[in-house]
Write the structure tokens for this entry.
Amino acid sequence: MLRELANAGERGAILTVFDFMSDILQAWNEALPRDMKAAAVYGFVPNLFLCQRQLPRAVEAEECLINAVVVCGNEMSRSHKEAILRCVAEVQKNDYCRTLYGNALPAASVGDSALFIFAIKLARFAPWFSKGDTSALKEWGFNDESLLEAVATIALGHMLCTLADGLSPVSDPRLALACSAEFPLVPEPTDWVETQGPYLSFPAEPSEKSPSYIFFRQEYGFLPNLFLVQSVRPDLVEAEARALENLMLPEDHLSRIQKEQILVTLSAANLNTYCFTMGCQVLSVLGALPGESDEIIAGQYLGQLSPQDKTLLDEAVKLGAFVKGSRGRFDRERLRTVGFTEAQIVEAVAVAGLANFLNTLQAGVGVVPDFPPPRTFSPKDLYPSDEKSRPISDATRPEDPDAEIVTCVQSGEIDAFEELVRRHSRRVYGILAGVVGNMDDVQDLTQDVFLKAFEHIGAFQRRSKFSTWLTSIAINTGTQLLRDRKPSESLSESDEDEGFCPRQIQDWAENPERLVAASQRDELVRAAVLRLPEKYRFALLLRDIEQLSTEEAATVLSISIPAMKARLLRGRLMLRESLTPYFVRRARES
Amino acid sequence: MLTCAEFLAEFGDYVENAASPDVRAKLEEHLHECKSCQVIVDSTRKTIRIVTDSASFTLAADKVEPIVRDVMARIRTKKR
């Protein structure tokens, strides 16, 4: 350590930061006076970390990321990474970080110039970042791994600037003033080219035994694309998993929901569809997201929050990487006034730092959401009435065959609605029949669904196809009827199937349809489907009976695609179990 | 090689012929050795076929127009 201290002046600040942090963390685990001694012994611990002393686990999370991004990795030199961190500090106009990396200077080669143009575009104009920016760097010999290192370093720079913005550490007396540095000028983009990610190729899925894989499986139920695409650097994924674990899971200061709300709100402010979608999914699982995704007021508040939580998000959003300064400066005093403790405020800033890290990382690698986004953000959200930033899309959205008619109805042509009823009455009827079971109600309910759709068609914003939207209304209408009839029964969850595994292992006939008359077969299927627990029944109804795509069905049920697939498979296996006695191979057939 | 429990947790895409080549190879390695899972895959595919082809929840064709008529009548009444 002392030897490295002696060399620290030559090698830039970041090594010093990292090495000292592990020592100070060790000290923090012991008594407070020793902590102070440790700082005195080692001479210098950046105030950025000292001022988080109320929350050692936050510093530990930051240490993990700094180690993985700056110290590890074999593709880019440490001096390049430090120069990128300095570049991000310049872009963010962050004096503290500018001084922290004051010795880091960009090299003068043309290839380096391309790297800094890349860094500035991502650090300053992330919503405009596209595959073309990545391709430009690949022309200079960058491969997927070195691109990932560059992107992660830019993301780390954002995180450190966020911490400095939120915590306002006093400058470190040991650091000299930053040397002046010239970085390329990158003008504000005028056109947005929407490109389909990811910009890096997906490596093989990581080992199921790796701790990060286990963490994501346990906490998220699947391995999100954002982490899957980084599998080439398992140590980096591991550090990100540890950072999430240290910051998001403990509830000794802020609650998990408060922290996820910060993540979602900042992602919306940064116009990051991926992280917004993932955050909404987590909130939904935590039961903290209002039923309809339309109720999310993007960039502002989620659902019905307490005045204290509104203030928390109102301040946290000021730390957005992309919107810095546009909503005013982060105001710690305001949070104290409404009752937040120092540790809670430090945690809020640390979570905002992590949110900016993940947002920038995603924007750089371009992975697509793991499930249907409740809302898609783009640069045009910044200029709602300006034509110049309209996307030039290279990703074709699925055409909605009802789009024209919907436009007519929305503009007041009532009669046009007739065709929508004609086209979709069979599907709505089928859904309701599968949800409520009692056929006597179904025709009246079908009419009710269309009346609701007509009443609300003005609010239909075409984020999905009209038929998907209508199917959601049908599912909700049927479910509500069941709830009204059997309020005491929990219809959405059933534990009886938790230990389900197939018991019927008999061969089925080659043509099982021939064993039973069509009308009897329909009745067998109907009875077996209606016996399925609700969540599996709905999945099977949408996918196998009404033939929606997996994505559409997941949208209707407001669940992720992996969750949809899991429910569908369980539903199919349970149905197979019920039907087996009727369709097994007869003796003469075998 | 996969256990039966692992196979049963993963074969959803396989029955729809939508599994990635890697997953498919892993599943087929297990299937090659396991008669029980062969039976489950075969009967699950047949279950999907039967359910997809059934008319269990289908609205009869002659019921469509009465629904269209009633819905539009209720809308027009409300709008008056």
About this structure: The first strand of chain A starts at residue 192 and ends at 194.
